[in-house]
């Protein structure tokens, strides 16, 4: 194989690899955007969870007299906060 043919062959292989790299970069970009969206959703859910726990705790503190037995109005809220 001549140097010219070897050069052409290597150029084609390099071009093919560059195309694969470019494709992989696109896939990585898409995956990063998906992760960012999921991270934002997780943060939103964590914030919502904290607000709900605070509201349950406040409700139990204000109405503790309704959550003082085994059969009471706020039992499920009390159990949810403990669990």
3D architecture notes:
This protein is mainly alpha-helical. The chain has one domain (3-82). It contains two helices and no strands. The chain has helices at 3-62, 75-82. The longest helix is centred in the middle third of the chain and has 60 residues, at 3-62. The relative contact order is 0.06. The mean pLDDT is 88.
In brief:
The chain is mainly α. It is built from 2 helices and no strands. The longest helix is centred in the middle third of the chain and has 60 residues.
Protein traits:
single chain; 83 residues; mainly alpha
The biggest beta sheet is recorded as: none
Radius of gyration from the alpha-carbon trace, in angstroms: 30 Å
Mean pLDDT equals 88
Order of helices and strands: HH
Query: How widely separated are the two ends?
Result: 74 Å
Please tell me what the overall shape is. Answer: rod-shaped
**Relative strand content:** under 5%
- Helix % is over 70%
Give the structural class: mainly alpha
Number of helical stretches of at least 4 residues: 2
Counted up, domains total: 1
Count every beta strand, where a strand is a DSSP E run of 2 or more residues. Answer: 0
Uncertain segments of ≥5 residues (pLDDT<50)?
none
Secondary structure blueprint with pairings:
Elements: H1 3-62, H2 75-82
């Amino acid at each position: 194989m001549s140097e010219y043919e070897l050069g052409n062959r290597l150029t084609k292989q390099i071009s093919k690899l560059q195309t694969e790299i470019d494709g992989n970069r696109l896939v990585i970009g898409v995956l990063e955007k998906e992760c960012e969206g999921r991270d934002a959703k997780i943060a939103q859910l964590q914030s919502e969870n904290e607000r709900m726990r605070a509201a349950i705790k406040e409700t139990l503190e204000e109405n503790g007299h309704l959550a003082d037995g085994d059969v009471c109005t706020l039992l499920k809220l009390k159990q949810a906060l403990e669990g």
